[in-house]
Amino acid sequence: MSMPNRPDSLILRVTGHFLLPLLIMFSLFLLLRGHNEPGGGFIGGLVAAAAIALHLFFTSVQSARRLIWVDPRDLIGWGLCIAIASGLFGMFGGLPFLSALWVELSVPIFGMLKVGTPLLFDIGVYLVVIGTVLNILLALAEAEDA
Amino acid sequence: MLYALLGGFGVAALAPWLHQLFGRHSGWALALWPATLLVYFCGFLAGVNDGPVLIQHNWIPSLGIQLSFMVDGLSLLFAMLISGIGIFIVAFAGRYLEGHRDLGRFYTILLAFMASMLGLVLSDNLIALFVFWELTSITSYLLIGFNHEDAAARRSALQGLFVTVGGGLALMTGLIMLAMVGGSYELSSLLNQGDVIREHALYAPMLWLILLGAFTKSAQFPFHFWLPNAMAAPTPVSAYLHSATMVKAGVYLLARLNPALGGTELWLTVLGSVGAITLFIGIWLALRSTGIKKVLAYSTVMALGTLTMLIGLGTPLAVTAAMAFLLAHSLYKGALFMVAGIIDHETGSKDLRDTGGLFRAMPITAVVAGMAALSLAGVIPMFGFVAKELLFDAALKNAASWILALVIAGTIMTVAVGALVGFLPWYGALVKTKKQPHEAAPALLAGPVVLALLGLGFGIAAPWVDRMLLGAAATAVAGVPVDYPVSLWHGFNTPLLLSIISLIAGLLLYRWRHHFRHHTRFTETLARTGPERGYDLIMAALVRISAAQTRFFQSGYLRYYLLIVLLTFMALVWTVLLLHWPALSVGIHLQGIQLHEYVLVFVLMVAAVAAARTDSRLGAVASLGAVGFTVALLYVMFSAPDLGITQVLVETLTVILLVLVLFRLPKFLRLTSATLRLRDVFVASAVGITMTCLLLFAADARLYQSISHWHVAQSVPSGYGRNIVNVILVDFRALDTLGEIFVLALAATGVLAMIRLRAEDKRK
After folding, report:
1. Which residues of B touch A131 (CB under 8 A)?
2. Is the pLDDT of residue A4 over 50?
């Protein structure tokens, strides 16, 4: 398939292939550093979605769907579940829903890492954002093929 | 206690699997749960005469909402009835609906209903009580409409839901007013505030609202019509919801709130008259019906009217009578409904005219039905007799004479109804039925047998029942210690005389029932123009109004949607602004603005004008993009990098989306007239001015201390993060974010549905 009126650009294809993994890594980087520096689940999710949109532009809907290998609708569902689950941890300790819990882990190479439920929550946001954007994008692109 | 309630919902959720696990014995297996509960509640019996037991759990502490439970005589009586009758209902359903493909689902709803009902009667907190109240409405809706392929069942389910939930809305308002007036959401403390509440100016509106909730739920006139229609449900449901539990919820609420609200002239008048009218109409319609379940349903309406009337009287004698009547009714009505189910199951008939002489085929059922019917008719030595004696006594001593007359007339007709269900199907000539009748299975018989025997046993041991539970229940209703002697034999007195008269008159009425039906045909016309007709009219009007307003607002043109949204927005903003006009001030501070900031704003304005003026779609997209990116730049300059990044990304993705859509749009055409465009210019400018004014006022108004300092100070120590925006998003205000991602998910689903629908339309 190809979109109507879409030029087959060699430059777009070549740079796209290189940019895709970089953009995905960048989105993860934004997600993880979000708590201390500009970034976070929302921004990270948008970057990842933009990366896949780029892929969509120089390949096909099918290829983009294969690339994410889950239905974007499932991403939304899982994102919501993870976000809710992150809020439940505190409840087991008798705290209100969505109370943040933190643990310090010592990880080789990285040193001391603070890991907490807000990160989990942010991952949920990340997935929901990717799912939402891709859902709409892919549906539109598919509708165009039809 | 919490586990006893929430466990019910857990078992309900697991019911389909348990059903598969136990196969055809699932009814008995699941009946173990209410049996466990009954044993648990029996544990409270010993202390019930020492006053209420309070159990508290925090639920939403910041709103003062607690999951608190109160066990006193009243709630314990209800809890034991709900779980006790529940045992047999579940077992009965397992056999009655055996092989039905949705039996697992049925168990789930039934058990969830049971748990909601228990929550309702045990809650001490008004909000929790209301939540459980609505849960019973919803679960009963699902139960009534269980045969969802049947249009009549769907209609009845919807009718029950609308009537009870409509009343529920009024109830919620009333309960909130009650809590405001009484200064607490806890029943246990409200019940001691009776004098304060009754003196308050809000007493009358509050009472009307609460009564509306209770009357709709308990099918009081003029809302009685939904209850008999709800007989579209499978028989176990009718037996459970519409005799012993659901419809008693309204009565429970009235009884529960009697110490806080009762005792006034208004209470006495409204409850007394509504109850008495309901009583009479209910039993009248019962006698005119021929469907077995219809007869029983209308006689339930009678019982509910009687209870309302007795609670309205509110004297120690009357509340004792109410509690005795409630217990008696639950026992015999549960039994009779299950008997009706057995007749239906074993013979295939649902009408009294199609049955007769069944005694030979099913002697045990016949005897049991006879015992329950004797209790219904109030014949010694059944517990129904005790209840009826108390009813007469209370009506003689405390009620107005017209109410007494209605009570006596009602009792006479009740005797006739008792004969109708306890005698007619069983004796006389055998009527040929669809199926060859035979005795019912143990699972079906267990409930009626036990309940009928209890009706007999409680009658003989009436003083013991009173000592164990009934006295405590009456005390809880009255709010003061009640010690009215309850026993089977009160000696020769006026109530006994009335009993004998009504028994004889009732049997005569039964003998001449055909004449009665024939000569009361005129009420058919009344019924057709009655409250149910009102319900139909209201529903039809609702549909018409919805259709009209949908046509008006949902025109399908984007520009009209925008127009409506913007005009509403302006109207709301200006109303508020004008209301607070004197307090508003505008301070425009132009100093300190850098040159490049002026330039950016200028670019922004030019781009916006260009977007509005351009004739090409691509140009419009590009101009809007310019607006977006300039705003992003502004964010960055005012040190909000997160917002800036988000804005840039959203702009990028918007462009991608627009590009995907752009190809599909028709050519850019001018379809509107110059006048319309002038109107749009006017509206757009007005919105712009409104927004500007709002911002100017908002920038200068500071109603509360800014909380940004707190966020800045707390971000690292309690949020463990230096990015304040992110800490707010995922920690401090995570609940808001959670709501937002849900909205996002919903939006995605909506867009997906729209695109798919369009694609399908095109394919056709």
Report:
1. 745, 748
2. no
* A6 has pLDDT over 70: no
What pTM was computed for the model?
Answer: 0.76
Residue A2: which pLDDT band, with cuts at 50, 70 and 90?
very low
Which chain B residues have any C-beta within 8 angstroms of a chain A C-beta?
61, 641-642, 645-646, 649-650, 652-653, 656-657, 660-661, 663-664, 719-723, 725-727, 729-731, 734-735, 737-738, 741-742, 744-745, 747-749, 751-752, 755-756, 758-759, 762-763
Yes or no, beta carbons of A38 and B737 under 8 Å apart: no
Using an 8 Å CB-CB cutoff, list chain B residues near A143. 664, 755-756, 758-759
* pLDDT for the residue B529: 66
Task: Kindly tell me if the per-residue pLDDT of B701 is higher than 80.
Answer: no
Nearest residue on chain A to B759, alpha-carbon basis: A143
Coil, strand or helix at B123: strand
pLDDT at B709: 81
What confidence tens digit (pLDDT) does each residue in B157-174 have?
888 888 889 899 999 999
Q: Are strands B53-60 and B65-71 parallel, antiparallel or unpaired?
A: antiparallel
Task: Give the distance from residue B646's alpha carbon to the nearest chain A alpha carbon, in angstroms.
Answer: 6
Look at the block and give the residue holding tokens 């009255």. Answer: B478
Tokens 């405001």 locate to B180
Which residues of chain B lie closer than 8 angstroms to A112, CB-CB?
Answer: none
Which residue is associated with the tokens 């009792």? Answer: B411
Among B102, B88, B84, CA closest to B443: B88
- Interface A-B: count of C-beta contacts within 8 A: 149
Provide the residue type at A51 as one letter.
Answer: A
pLDDT (average), residues B348-355: 79
Within 10 angstroms of residue B558's Cβ, the number of other Cβ atoms is 8
Q: Are the beta carbons of B349 and B361 closer than 8 angstroms? A: no
User: How far apart are alpha carbons B293 and B340 in whole angstroms?
Assistant: 7
Q: What is the pLDDT of residues B215-239, one digit of tens each?
A: 998 888 888 888 888 887 888 888 8
B58 DSSP β-pair partners? B66
Cα of A125 to nearest chain B Cα, Å: 7
- Cβ distance B49 to B60 under 8 Å? no
Q: Which amino acid is at B699?
A: A
Contact list, A40 vs chain B (CB under 8 Å): 642, 723, 725-726, 729-730
Position A1 pLDDT exceeds 70:
no
Provide φ and ψ at A104, rounded to 5°: -100, 125
CA dihedral B450, B453, B459, B464 (to 10 degrees): -60
Q: Could you tell me if B316 and B466 are in contact, meaning their C-beta atoms sit under 8 angstroms apart? A: no
Alpha-carbon distances of B424 from B147, B370, B430, B431, B756, rounded to whole Å: 29, 10, 11, 11, 61
What's the half-sphere exposure (Cβ side, CA atoms, 13 Å) at B665?
12
Q: Are A144 and B758 in contact (CB under 8 A)?
A: no
The encoded tokens of residue B691 equal 């927004």
A39 and B660 in contact by Cβ < 8 A?
Answer: no
DSSP code at position B245:
S
- Stretch (H or E) spanning A100: none
User: Which tokens is B620 given?
Assistant: 């419009």
Which residues, other chains included, contact B703 with Cβ-Cβ below 8 Å and sequence gap of 6+? Answer: none
In 3D space, the residue among B725, B247, B471 whose CA is nearest the CA of residue A37 turns out to be B725
Kindly report the nearest CA distance between residue B57 and chain A, in angstroms. Answer: 12
* CB atoms B726 and A53 under 8 Å: no
In the DSSP assignment, the letter for residue B243 is I
Of A112 and B594, which is predicted with more confidence?
B594
Over residues A55-77, the pLDDT tens digits come to 888 888 888 888 888 888 899 99
**Interface predicted TM-score (ipTM):** 0.88
| B671-B610-B652 Cα angle (round to 5) | 100
Closest to B368 in 3D by CA, of B436, B303, B450, B292: B450
